């Protein structure tokens, strides 16, 4: 879409000249002659840039600028001013205008100014979009701002307005149903039903009835007609969780339904139609299931239009802390407990755990803590097994894993070193070798080179990362720094090394 430039100029001849200047430029150029016309234009469709004359027939350019500021329009403003009103234009720059051009306006000056401000406007828009994207800590039932989750949010934003089938896959407990609900509530079907079926929890004999419904007498116990999920979700979304658990014969019937939008209730003879969107999910590898003959290949390609991978909790970094804190406050409020936050060593313990049950497991653990304890901060002893058990470190050769001293211990270690140094000095002073050793030490100090603080900082940070087996998050916790700070410094060092 082309960017829009609005010229507010009461002189028709000048407007024609300016239009001639920019006739070959890659943007749309509009012209109005009064302040009221400018307001009406901007209210209907705000332009990216306004070239504003100060002297208009019905009001001053200052009045238009003040109105734009009040409306908080995301529009750049260039003031067109005669020589005698430059002081006024400078004052307007301090009150919201972005630039001014002195009349008579030359062609190159006009084109250059417009191009520069449109480029800046576009860059600011991109920055704002990125900030909005990467600052989302909560999104449609999700909690977390990690990069893997931001990618999920972006896909949901893109696919939700469409009618495309979505296939969600990932480990159990990663939030596949939350993802399906997010797609539904971001779509145009949000005011229609969202029906979820767990294909692995329904007996095979009842699966067809569960999805397509049945009529009275279709089987023993069918005493009334019953609508299935396909009809209950009419106009909305049908979510089929654990789709790979469905038997092959039922997969065949499901495929026909997806292709035609029509089905026959169990025991019935009349074919019905429905308008639904299908979202499927599985915790298995669907291609493996296809290759091993447990999942129909044609059904796979029918539902696998837009795949979304839900990342496991262990790959979501500090999202673990955000989710745990969210549930802690939620359950503490519900159960009238005092819990407010996690202790630092608990945060580290949670981030180091592998979370085989993912978010569902974390949720249950926090629930357990709140039910069984009452404190202001969650401590290690509050956690259930295995999280409350001591962590056993594997024996590691000194050469392969350098030791690491946390910042909080540095001052104590330095004091200990000073005491040891003083004791050594006293011992040496009583021997004949003391003078020789002292002289050698003094020469070494005098000839040593003081290292830059940046080198020491890098060594300490790299030592911490090595100590944590490359886990930047854990290193950040030990160093009491933000993980983003460590990532930024690592990127800067790597970029410098590549440029060398």
TrEMBL record:
Residue ranges constituting the Sigma-54 factor interaction domain according to the UniProt record: 142-371
Keyword tags: ATP-binding, DNA-binding, Nucleotide-binding, Phosphoprotein, Transcription, Transcription regulation, Two-component regulatory system
UniProt record, GO biological process: phosphorelay signal transduction system; regulation of DNA-templated transcription
Segments for region (Disordered): 384-408
Domain Response regulatory: 4-118
Tagged with keyword Metal-binding: no
UniProt xrefs under InterPro entries: AAA+_ATPase (IPR003593), AAA_lid_NorR (IPR058031), CheY-like_superfamily (IPR011006), Homeodomain-like_sf (IPR009057), HTH_Fis (IPR002197), P-loop_NTPase (IPR027417), Sig_transdc_resp-reg_receiver (IPR001789), Sigma_54_int (IPR002078)
Name of the protein described by the UniProt record: Sigma-54 dependent transcriptional regulator
Organism: Aliivibrio fischeri SR5
Alphabetized Gene3D superfamilies for the sequence: 1.10.8.60, 3.40.50.2300, Homeodomain-like, P-loop containing nucleotide triphosphate hydrolases
Modified residues (4-aspartylphosphate): 53
GO MF annotations, alphabetized: ATP binding; sequence-specific DNA binding
């Amino acid at each position: 879409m082309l960017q829009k430039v609005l010229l507010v100029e009461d002189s028709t001849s000048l407007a024609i000249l300016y239009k001639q200047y920019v006739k070959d430029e890659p943007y749309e150029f509009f012209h109005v002659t009064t302040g009221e016309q400018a307001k009406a234009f901007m209210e209907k469709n705000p332009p990216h840039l306004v070239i504003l004359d100060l002297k208009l027939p019905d009001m001053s350019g200052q009045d238009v600028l003040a109105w734009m500021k009040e409306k908080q329009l995301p529009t750049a403003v260039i003031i067109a001013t005669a020589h005698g009103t430059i002081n006024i234009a400078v004052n307007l720059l301090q009150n919201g205008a972005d630039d001014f051009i002195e009349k008579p306006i030359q062609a190159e000056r006009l084109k250059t100014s417009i191009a520069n401000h449109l480029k800046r406007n576009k860059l600011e828009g991109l920055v704002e979009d990125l900030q909005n994207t990467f600052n989302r800590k909560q999104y449609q039932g999700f909690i977390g701002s990690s990069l893997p989750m931001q990618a999920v949010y972006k896909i949901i934003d893109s696919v939700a307005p469409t009618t495309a089938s979505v296939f969600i896959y990932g480990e159990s407990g990663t939030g596949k149903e939350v993802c399906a609900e997010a797609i539904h509530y971001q779509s145009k079907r949000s005011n229609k039903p969202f029906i979820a079926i767990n294909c692995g929890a329904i007996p095979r004999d009842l699966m067809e009835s569960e999805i397509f419904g049945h009529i009275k007498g279709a089987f023993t116990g069918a005493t009334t007609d019953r609508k299935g999920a396909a009809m209950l979700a009419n106009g909305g979304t049908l979510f089929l969780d654990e789709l790979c658990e469905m038997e092959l014969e039922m997969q065949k019937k499901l495929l026909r339904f997806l292709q035609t939008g029509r089905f026959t209730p169990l025991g019935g003879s009349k074919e019905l139609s429905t308008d639904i969107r299908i979202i499927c999910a599985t915790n298995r590898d669907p291609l493996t299931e296809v290759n091993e003959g447990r999942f129909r290949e044609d059904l796979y390609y029918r539902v696998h239009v837009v795949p979304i991978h839900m990342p496991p909790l262990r790959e979501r970094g500090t999202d673990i802390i955000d989710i745990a804190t969210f549930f802690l406050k939620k359950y503490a409020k519900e159960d009238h407990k005092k819990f407010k936050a996690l202790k630092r060593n608990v945060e580290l313990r949670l981030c180091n755990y592998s979370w085989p049950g993912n978010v569902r497991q974390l949720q249950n653990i926090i629930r357990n803590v709140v039910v069984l304890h009452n404190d202001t901060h969650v401590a290690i002893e509050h956690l259930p097994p295995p999280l409350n058990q001591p962590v056993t470190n594997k024996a590691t050769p000194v050469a392969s894993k350098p030791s690491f001293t946390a910042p909080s211990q540095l001052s104590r270690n330095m004091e200990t070193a000073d005491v040891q140094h003083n004791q050594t000095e006293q011992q040496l002073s009583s021997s004949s070798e003391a003078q020789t050793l002292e002289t050698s030490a003094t020469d070494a100090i005098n000839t040593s080179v003081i290292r830059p603080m940046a080198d020491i900082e890098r060594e300490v940070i790299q030592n911490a990362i090595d100590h944590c087996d490359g886990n930047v998050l854990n290193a950040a916790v030990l160093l009491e720094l933000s993980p983003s700070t460590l990532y930024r410094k690592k990127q800067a060092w790597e970029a410098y090394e590549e440029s060398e």
